C-alpha cells in the first residue's frame, strides 16, 4: 500500500495565532532567568578565581553540579522536588525562571572567570602603581575590558537558554512548545505546528545573533 502525505501550509499558517501567546512566556522565562543567572555567574565566577581555596571550593561545586546535570532534571527537581522540602507548591513560571537562572549561572560563572583572567596582569599592576586600590583597579580597569570580551559568549548562552525553555512544557509552562501541544491535541497537525514552532524559535535566536554581530561590527564587544 502506498502512503502519500502532503504538507498542509494552510494548517501551518492557521496555527500561528495560537502559538503567538507562547512567545512572551518564552522570552520572560529565558531573559528573566538570564538576568538572575548573570548576577549568580558574577558571584561564583569571582569566587572561582579567588586565591582562597575555601572560597573556590563552593564555586567549583556549584559550577560542576549545574553544568553536569541536564536542565530538564533541574526544572523537574525544582517543580516537583523542592515543594516537598519547602512544604508548599512552586509556580511553574517560577520554576522555569529558577531553572534557567541556576543553569545559566553555572555557565556564566566560567565566562566571567575566563573574561577576567584574559586581561593582562600588567594592567592591574599598572593601576596599582598609579595609586588605585585593588577594588578600584578591578572596577575601573579590569572589569570594563573583561565585560566587553564576555558579551559574545553571554549572547551564546542567551540563545541556549531560549531554546532550553522548550523543555519546560513538561511542567505546564505556556511557552511555545506547550502552546503547540495544546493546539495539536485538537487539530492533529503535528508536523505543521511543530514546524511553525521551530521557525518562531529560529526567528528569536536569529534576531539575537544579528544584534550581537552588529555590536561586534561597531567595536562594542571583543578586544
UniProtKB/TrEMBL annotation:
<feature type="transmembrane region" description="Helical">
    <location>
        <begin position="23"/>
        <end position="47"/>
    </location>
</feature>
<dbReference type="InterPro" id="IPR000515">
    <property type="entry name" value="MetI-like"/>
</dbReference>
<dbReference type="Pfam" id="PF00528">
    <property type="entry name" value="BPD_transp_1"/>
</dbReference>
<dbReference type="InterPro" id="IPR035906">
    <property type="entry name" value="MetI-like_sf"/>
</dbReference>
<keyword id="KW-0812">Transmembrane</keyword>
<feature type="transmembrane region" description="Helical">
    <location>
        <begin position="59"/>
        <end position="82"/>
    </location>
</feature>
<protein>
    <submittedName>
        <fullName>Amino acid ABC transporter permease</fullName>
    </submittedName>
</protein>
<dbReference type="InterPro" id="IPR043429">
    <property type="entry name" value="ArtM/GltK/GlnP/TcyL/YhdX-like"/>
</dbReference>
<keyword id="KW-0813">Transport</keyword>
<keyword id="KW-0472">Membrane</keyword>
<dbReference type="InterPro" id="IPR010065">
    <property type="entry name" value="AA_ABC_transptr_permease_3TM"/>
</dbReference>
<keyword id="KW-1133">Transmembrane helix</keyword>
<comment type="similarity">
    <text>Belongs to the binding-protein-dependent transport system permease family. HisMQ subfamily.</text>
</comment>
<feature type="domain" description="ABC transmembrane type-1">
    <location>
        <begin position="23"/>
        <end position="212"/>
    </location>
</feature>
<feature type="transmembrane region" description="Helical">
    <location>
        <begin position="193"/>
        <end position="215"/>
    </location>
</feature>
<keyword id="KW-1003">Cell membrane</keyword>
<keyword id="KW-0029">Amino-acid transport</keyword>
<comment type="function">
    <text>Part of the binding-protein-dependent transport system for glutamine; probably responsible for the translocation of the substrate across the membrane.</text>
</comment>
Amino acid at each position: 500500500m502506498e502512503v502519500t502525505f502532503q504538507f498542509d501550509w494552510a494548517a501551518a499558517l492557521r496555527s500561528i495565532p495560537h502559538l503567538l501567546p507562547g512567545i512572551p512566556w518564552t522570552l520572560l522565562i529565558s531573559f528573566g532567568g538570564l538576568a538572575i543567572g548573570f548576577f549568580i555567574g558574577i558571584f561564583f565566577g569571582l569566587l572561582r578565581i579567588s586565591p582562597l581555596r575555601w572560597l573556590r571550593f563552593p564555586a567549583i561545586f556549584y559550577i560542576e553540579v549545574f553544568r553536569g546535570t541536564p536542565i530538564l532534571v533541574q526544572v523537574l527537581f525544582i517543580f516537583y522536588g523542592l515543594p516537598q522540602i519547602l512544604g508548599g507548591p512552586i509556580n511553574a513560571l517560577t520554576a522555569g525562571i529558577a531553572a534557567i537562572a541556576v543553569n545559566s549561572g553555572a555557565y556564566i560563572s566560567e565566562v566571567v572567570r575566563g573574561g577576567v583572567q584574559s586581561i593582562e596582569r600588567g594592567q592591574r599592576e599598572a593601576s596599582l602603581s598609579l595609586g588605585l586600590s585593588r577594588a578600584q583597579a578591578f572596577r575601573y580597569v579590569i572589569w570594563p575590558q573583561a565585560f566587553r570580551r564576555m558579551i559574545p559568549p553571554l549572547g551564546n548562552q542567551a540563545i541556549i537558554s531560549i531554546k532550553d525553555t522548550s523543555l519546560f512544557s513538561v511542567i505546564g509552562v505556556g511557552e511555545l512548545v506547550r502552546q503547540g501541544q495544546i493546539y495539536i491535541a485538537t487539530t492533529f497537525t503535528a508536523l505543521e505546528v511543530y514546524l511553525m514552532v521551530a521557525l518562531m524559535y529560529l526567528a528569536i535566536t536569529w534576531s539575537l545573533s544579528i544584534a550581537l554581530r552588529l555590536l561586534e561590527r561597531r567595536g562594542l564587544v571583543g578586544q
